[in-house]
Amino acid sequence: MPSKKPTTTPAQAATLPDGIEIFRPGRHIDDQGVAHNFSDADVDGMAASYNPALREAPLTVGHPKDNLPAYGWVKALARNADGVLAITPHNVEPQFAEMVAAKRFPKRSASFYPPQAPNNPTPGKWYLRHVAFLGAQPPAIAGLKDIQFSEDDAGGAVSFSEPVSAEPSTQEPDDMSTALQAQLDEANKKLAAEKTAREKAEADAAEAKKKEDAARAESASFAEKARADRKAGFVSFAEAQVTAGRLLPKDKAMAVATLEALADAQPVEFSEGDTTRKVSPAQWFQDLFSSATPVVSFGEFAGGNGVNQAQVGAAKGKSDAEIDKAAKDYMQQHKVNYSEALTAVTTSFTS
Fold it and tell me: Which of 144, 162, 206, 295 is deepest in the core (most CB within 10 A)?
C-alpha cells in the first residue's frame, strides 16, 4: 500500500497537472439523494476555507470513509477563470498519475465536510474532505473541463471523459483501491523486469564488444606478424639473389620494396601453352629473378664468363663487399655505370 503521505521528486516520472476542476456552483444531489444548492459565495467559501496545514485533502480512488489510501494530496484550492473550483495536486504517486493519464480513472468527484459535521476543521463552512477518482461511476456534475496533461506531464495533451462531483458520502470503500494497488504492484513488477532485462542486454553488449575488441586486436597482431615474416622472406630472397649474382647489392632494398608492393596485389591469370596459370605478381617476380642469368660474379671468378684471367687473379682474395665498394667509388668518381666500374676496379687490382 502507498504511504499515507507519499513523497515524490520532480525527476520521478509523471504527476497530475494543476487546475483539475472538481466542483461548480449550482444544485447538486449527494450520494444519499439529498439536494443541495451552492451559490458562488458558497464555492468562494470552500476555496477560502481550505488550509492544507490545517487538514490536507487526499486524492483517493472511490470514496473511502477513512480517506485512505491516499495517492496524492491537494496543495491548493481555488476558483478558476470560469468560476469552477479547481485543485493544485502535489506529492502524487507516479504510477497513479500514469494510470489517470491512461484513462483508468476518467471521472472524479469531490467530497466535503458539511458546515455542521463534527470532524469539520472549519465549523460553519464547507471544507474539502477528499477528491475521488472514479472508474465507470456516472458523473454527478456535468460540464467540468477535462484533465489536460502537458507534454512534460504525460507525453502530450490528453482529454478525459466528463468529471464528477459528489457530496459527503457514507459509501463503503469498494474494490477499486484493491484493484489499483494490484495494478501498481503489477506495474512495479513490469518496471523491475524491464530494468533487469535492460541491464542484462547492456551487460551482454559490453561483453560482446570486449570479445570483439580482443579478436580485432589479436587479428591486427597476427596481421602485423604476418607482414613482418613476409618482409623477412623478401629480404632473405633478395640476399640470395645478390649472392647468386642475379641482383646487384645496390638494388637489394629496391627489390624488397617492390616485392612488398606486389604482395597485396590480386593473383594474375594467364595462358601458358595449353594450360592456364594463376600466380601472384610477387611470386612471378621472384620466379623471374630465380631463373635469370647472373649479371656479375664476385669473389672467385670462373673462366669463360667475360672477365679475363688478369681480372680473375686480381679478384682472388677480395671479398664481395670490398669489390662492391671499390666499384661504387669508381662509379662516383668517373661517372660510369656499375659494369664498367666493376671491370675497371678488378683490372686495377693487378696494377
Answer: 144
pLDDT for 287: 82
User: What is the distance between the alpha carbons of residues 92 and 73, in angstroms, rounded to a whole number?
Assistant: 7
- The length of the chain is 351
- pTM more than 0.85: no
Structural contact between residues 286 and 256, judged by C-beta atoms closer than 8 angstroms? no
Please report which residue ranges of 155-251 form alpha helices under DSSP H.
Answer: 176-243
Q: Which residue has the higher pLDDT, 289 or 294?
A: 289
Give the Cα separation of 324 and 308 in Å (integer).
18
DSSP 8-state symbol, 145:
P
d(CA 253, CA 257): 6
pLDDT at 159 over 50: no
Please check whether residue 350 is in contact with residue 313, taking contact to mean a CB–CB distance below 8 angstroms: yes
Work out the average pLDDT over 183-200. 84
**What does the DSSP 8-state code read for residue 250?**
G
Per the CB < 8 A criterion, the answer to whether 347 and 323 are in contact is no
pLDDT in tens, 40-75: 999 999 999 999 999 999 998 877 665 568 889 999
Buried b vs exposed e over 13-32: b needs ≥16 C-beta within 10 Å? Answer: ebbbbebbbbbbbeebebee
Q: What are the structural domains of the chain?
A: 20-172 (3.20.16), 226-290 (no CATH), 309-348 (no CATH)
Segments in 50-118 forming alpha helices (H): 94-101
Q: For residue 132, give the 3-state DSSP assignment.
A: strand
Q: d(Cα 24, Cα 165) in Å, to the nearest integer?
A: 9
Q: DSSP string covering 260-327, please?
A: HHHHTSPPEEEEETTEEEEE-HHHHHHHHHHTSPPS---SSPPTTSS--HHHHHHHTT--HHHHHHHH
All 3 cell numbers of residue 3? 504511504
